[in-house]
Write a structure and sequence with these properties.
Blueprint (H helix, E strand, L loop, with lengths): L5 E7 L6 H12 L16 H6 L6 E8 L5 E8 L7 H9 L3 E7 L6 H12 L3 E7 L8 H12 L7 E2 L8 H11 L12 E10 L3 E10 L1 E2 L4 E4 L5 E3 L2 E6 L1 E5 L2 E2 L3 E5 L13 E4 L18 E7 L5 H14 L4 E7 L3 E8 L2 H14 L4 E3 L6 E5 L4 E4 L11 E16 L3 H10 L3 E7 L4 E9 H4 L3 H8 L5 E11 L2 E8 L2 E2 L5 E4 L3 H15 L7 E7 L2 E8 L15 H21 L6 H8 L5
Parallel strand pairs: 1-3, 1-4, 4-5, 5-6
Antiparallel strand pairs: 2-3, 7-8, 7-16, 8-15, 9-14, 10-11, 10-16, 12-13, 12-15, 17-19, 17-20, 18-19, 21-22, 21-23, 23-25, 23-26, 24-25, 27-28, 27-29, 27-30, 30-31
Helix pairs in contact: 12-14
Length: 600
């Protein structure tokens, strides 16, 4: 295919605006898969994506298209996620494209993540083609959405293509607009090879499959490639395109999006964002990668069976190959053994990683309470960053503690403004702006601690706004806070996996919450078990699991009361002795229950 007939584009939008449905219509029109094999969300290959109705991984597909002029084009589409936790996936997709379809729901209008993704595309100088979707719905208000596209996004609404991805209306016109409006890729086939790794996955038979966008040069089987950052050299075994399945081609030329297989078994050699070139004729400089990943939520992952540690290590390596935004290092716990301290982009990202480890790698794992990274300054002037309660210094050695703050941008219908403001203030938020976008929508910005958003903020926001409010956030730096380490004691012993770093004013309520949940999860023993929340040596919350009482007087029929009292006193002494030596087994469900709020 000549380069002038290639179009590389992605679909960007807020969550649930119809990206995957539109991709389905494109795939059907291209006829690269027959009707028997077709299913909804065809590019969402993971079970989790289908069950939750969200896109987690960006997926590439090559679509042949014959335009009205009779010329054949090759459209390389990258479908992207919409949730704020997967913005890194979006940046990866954008870096490999020349244009973007900005999809806007005709009933919802412009939302927070729509703006965020638009700015990201503009930073990469992509050609933006606005598309208004769901025009078939009774609640569609096309004139209002066009006004929002012009007023909020600064794009020309007259250029917007009206479609219904569900019914297919307007999709042929959109394909024509892609060909006419999105530029052909630049680059030269005569220059040294420069290809960007924008994704990869692991095949158990063929090794690492690298997803690349070729900017300059040509790559074909038999070439020896050089991976820029690691210096690793491999001989290319095959190249090809994504047509739902992998389809081999003779070569990949400048402008192409495709894959290469080179028998790579060492996963550490391949990093997303790296540059691939030829070893005998390397390029002068690597391609600029996309933005660096910055994890904001930290949690430790441990295998339930300590013997599964090696399997967990292999699973983490393969998962990071496919999910470059996951960061991890080795960790250990007195209660849970050896595991990994992981960094995630958000709580949904954490849940998805947990489910993928359990489903794709058949592992039984446990996660500790999520936390953020705090900056601690000690009395002697030294500074350190702490994301794990285990490494929190003693209270008397700390001069100041600072926690990360975010700017939360929330767009909501005016009917729910009061509820949203109440929720944000309960999370220690400070309002920084409030703009009425029109008579029905308002944009409100709050600065609040990231730690307050971790557990249930997003769920509560959707609940109080009946799903209409949209949420986006960005980091704004660190601010001083009153931080304490909350220890949970089971039968007088601190369980390190349950320890948390919390805001001092919230510590007592959080401790009571965890103790109540543990009381429901830990089974009763032959002796009373105290569950306590403590800050240092100060107990701030307590629950008690009552003992299972054996009726030792069951065999006493009548007779003197002293006989019964003697047996009860003997039992009492035995229980006291048992409590001194008795260990309490904390079930895995108790660790999970401790992470949840009372409302969940």
């Amino acid at each position: 295919m000549i380069r002038e007939h290639i179009r590389n584009f992605c679909i960007i939008a807020h969550i649930d605006h119809g990206k995957s449905t539109l991709a389905d219509r494109f795939v059907q029109r291209a006829r690269i898969i027959n009707d028997r094999e077709f299913q909804d969300q065809i590019l969402d290959s993971m079970d989790i994506e289908r069950e939750r109705g969200i896109t987690i991984k960006s997926q590439a597909v090559t679509l042949p298209f014959e335009s009205a002029s009779g010329e054949t084009y090759e459209l390389n589409l990258v479908d992207t996620p919409g949730h704020v936790d997967f913005a890194y996936e979006v940046s990866r997709a954008i870096s490999s494209c020349d244009g973007a379809l900005l999809l806007v729901d005709a009933t919802q209008g412009v939302e927070a993540q729509t703006l965020s993704n638009l700015y990201m595309a503009m930073d990469h100088d992509l050609e933006i083609l606005p598309v208004i979707n769901k025009i078939d719905l009774p609640g569609a208000d096309i004139d209002r959405v066009k006004h929002e596209i012009e007023h909020d996004l600064g794009l020309d609404a007259d250029d917007a293509v009206l479609i219904s991805a569900k019914t297919g209306d307007g999709v042929p016109e959109l394909l024509e607009a892609i060909v006419q409006r999105i530029p052909a890729p630049a680059g030269s086939e005569l220059d040294p090879l420069r290809a960007l790794i924008f994704d990869s996955h692991y095949d158990p038979y063929r090794g690492v499959v690298i997803h690349i966008r070729v900017f300059d040069g040509v790559i074909k089987p038999g070439d020896e490639i050089l991976v820029w950052s690691s210096g690793a050299r491999y001989k290319v075994e095959s190249t090809g395109n994504f047509r739902i399945s992998l389809v081999e081609t003779k070569e990949l030329r400048a402008g192409d999006v495709g894959y290469l297989i080179a028998g790579i078994k060492t996963i550490a050699d391949i990093r997303v964002g790296d540059t691939v070139t030829l070893s005998d004729r390397p390029c002068e400089a690597p391609l600029p990668g996309f933005r660096e990943v910055k994890p904001v939520v930290f949690s430790s992952i441990y295998p339930i069976d300590a013997n599964d540690y090696d399997e967990l290590l292999a699973a983490m390596e393969r998962l990071t190959l496919n999910d470059a935004s996951l960061v991890y290092e080795k960790d250990s716990s007195a209660a849970l053994g050896f595991g990994f301290r992981c960094g995630f982009l958000g709580l949904l990202h954490l849940e998805v990683v947990q489910e993928r480890l359990e489903r794709e790698f058949d592992l039984s794992i446990i996660l500790t309470a999520p936390s953020v990274k705090y900056q601690i300054e000690l009395n002697d002037g030294t500074s350190l960053e702490v994301d794990n309660p285990e490494y929190y210094p003693e209270e008397g050695h700390i001069a100041t503690a600072a926690e990360p703050f975010i700017t939360a941008t929330i767009m909501t219908p005016t009917d729910y403004l009061g509820n949203v403001m109440t929720l944000c203030m309960s999370k220690r938020g400070e309002q920084t702006s409030l703009n009425y976008l029109d008579e029905r929508r308002v944009e409100i910005a709050y600065e609040m601690p990231l730690a307050e958003v971790l557990f249930d903020f997003y769920d509560k926001l959707k609940s109080i706004s009946r799903g209409y409010a949209s949420f986006d956030y960005e980091m704004v730096g660190y601010r001083d806070t009153k931080l304490v380490k909350l220890d949970i004691l089971v039968n007088g012993k601190a369980v390190d996996a349950l320890s948390q770093l919390v805001f001092r004013d919230n510590a007592a309520e959080r401790a009571r919450q965890i103790c109540r949940r543990l009381k429901d999860e830990i089974p009763r023993h032959q002796f009373k078990i105290p569950l306590q929340g403590a800050i240092g040596s100060t107990i701030i919350a307590r629950e008690t699991i009552n003992a299972v009482r054996k009726d030792v007087t069951a065999k006493c029929y009548g007779g003197d009361i002293s006989r019964k009292r003697k047996l009860l006193e003997k039992q009492k002494e035995g229980k006291k002795r048992m409590k001194l030596v008795g260990n309490v087994e904390v079930p895995q469900t108790a660790f999970l229950a401790a992470l949840k709020s009372d409302e969940s």
